[in-house]
Specification:
Shape: globular
CATH architecture of the largest domain: 3-Layer(aba) Sandwich
Number of domains: 3
CATH class of the largest domain: Alpha Beta
Order of helices and strands: EEEEEHEEEEHEEEEEHEHEHEEHEHEE
CATH topology of the largest domain: Rossmann fold
Radius of gyration: 24 Å
Strand order of the largest sheet: 17-16-15-18-19-21-20
Largest sheet: 7 strands, mixed
CATH superfamily of the largest domain: Vaccinia Virus protein VP39
Helix content: 10-25%
Distance between the termini: 58 Å
Length: 445
């Protein structure tokens, strides 16, 4: 069991209840308010805060909304803020709605089911603008977030987890499970790193996945009772083309509708965007932004099985993709042939390797980057800046690391021309953000 941290009893006692007004949402989807404390205005914990922020001690309360007055129970004090659980909503927001999922607030998968969808989009737009200002030092207009055609039932892949110690009918678990189910199969409980909550149905997953989930859960429980899964495991359910697979190595086919009109194959375990309903508009935007630069050639770094490269190939004379996963690159090549695309080539290597020997003229080349959540690799950025493409379209599932990298692009002579968020993950704090950068006039080699 993980060692419990010692509770710091200042400024609030353990489980002390306080009342406060929630004024904003953090980019992690948590409500934030401030509580006046005697002598706080001159305290050392406010030394690094701007004067306008010195309105009281910060308290984070999940599942609360701006404008609400709440009663909260403190469970942790940090050196400059506290965390608390909501006890009662004393004055609810007019934008508060009833969550569809009965597990909302206990399951850590969703943060916004209590917030009307139009307001989710408005807050995500605001949070991108705040990250731009605070992390990149840029004040720039952020386009309204493109919403998902489906607010629920959109997610085409889920990976429930379970843990066991040994096996047998007692279903002993290898984690501390505070729920009533002795053998939960699901996701992490809100605010924990090891406590799994049982999830018999996921409201943001597709209907097909939920239909398959019940049978898979029964099969796993039967196997555990018979002595299988001595260390627990992770399940996979992925839907494409109207069918659901539970095999990690299954080859599946995703249809990307107009205006892309692509048919892509890849392994169920490999990365692929999990909201197929917004993908056509998402890919079309990336293609349009890259082509608007006037570039004749396109490089797709972190190309996966070819989503952006093949979706954009018709707008360029030549396309080159790179991906570290050899299986993904094999599928990218297969997908190019299957879709009749002859001007795209793919390389299985680290993303930075794409620039070595590339015969595309930098001044006539656009680069699409869609890195992992941690952002771009330092070596990749060095090679990219040395190559000096005409434009860069940067796609990110974590705007915080994207804005960190944006600083480096600005220092390297690129200008920000558009910031367009897409909500691929309704009811959660997550989103995809596409920023377009163009090399400053006169800086081409």
């Amino acid at each position: 069991m993980p060692k419990k941290r010692k509770f710091i009893d200042q400024p609030f006692g353990y489980h002390q209840e306080i009342e406060l007004e929630i004024t904003t949402l953090t980019n992690r989807g948590v409500g934030l308010g401030r509580v006046p404390l005697p002598g706080l205005a001159s305290g050392p914990e406010l030394r690094d805060l701007a004067p306008a922020d010195r309105g009281g001690w910060v308290v984070m309360v999940p599942f609360t909304l701006p404008g609400e007055r709440v009663r909260a129970r403190v469970f942790r004090n940090h050196k400059n803020f506290s965390e608390a659980d909501p006890v009662a909503i004393l004055s609810p927001s007019p934008h508060r709605v009833s969550p569809r999922c009965p597990l909302f607030g206990a399951c850590g998968g969703c943060q916004y089911q209590h917030l009307a969808y139009a307001e989710q989009l408005a807050w995500k737009q605001r949070q991108v603008a705040e990250l731009l200002e605070h992390l990149a030092g840029v004040t720039f207009p952020v386009e309204p977030v493109v919403g998902s055609p489906r607010e629920f039932g959109y997610r085409s892949k889920i990976t429930p987890h379970f843990e066991t110690k040994g096996s047998g009918p007692e279903f002993r678990t290898g984690v501390q499970n505070s729920g009533p189910d002795p053998f939960p199969i699901g996701f992490l409980r809100q605010g924990t790193r090891h406590d799994i909550i049982d999830v018999p149905r996921c409201e943001i997953a597709t209907d097909g996945i939920n239909a398959e989930l019940a049978g898979l859960r029964a099969a796993v429980r039967a196997k555990v009772a018979a002595g299988g899964y001595p260390r627990g495991g992770t399940l996979l359910l992925r839907e494409a083309g109207g069918s659901v697979t539970t095999e990690f190595n299954a080859v599946i086919t995703e249809e990307i509708g107009p205006p892309c009109g692509l048919r892509l194959r890849f392994l169920a375990r490999d990365f692929f965007q999990n909201n197929p309903f917004i993908l056509p508009e998402f890919v079309a935007h990336v293609r349009a932004q890259a082509a608007a630069s006037g570039a004749r050639f396109l490089v797709d770094a972190y190309c996966g099985s070819g989503l952006f490269a093949l979706g954009s190939a018709g707008a360029f004379e030549g396309v080159a993709g790179v991906e570290i996963s050899a299986t993904s690159v094999a599928f990218a090549k297969e997908n190019a042939a299957a879709n009749g695309i002859v001007n795209a080539s793919f390389l299985a290597a680290d993303a930075a390797a794409i620039f070595a020997g590339l015969d595309f003229p930098p001044g006539e080349t656009a680069v699409v980057v869609d890195p992992p959540r941690r952002g771009c690799d330092e070596n990749f950025l060095k090679q990219l800046f040395a190559f000096g493409p005409r434009a860069v379209v940067y796609v990110s599932c974590d705007p915080a690391t994207q804005m960190r990298d944006l600083r480096l692009f600005l220092e390297a002579g690129y200008e920000l021309s558009r910031v367009q968020p897409f909500d691929l993950f309704p009811q959660t704090r997550h989103l995809e953000c596409v920023i377009t950068l163009n090399r400053q006039v006169g800086s081409f080699s």
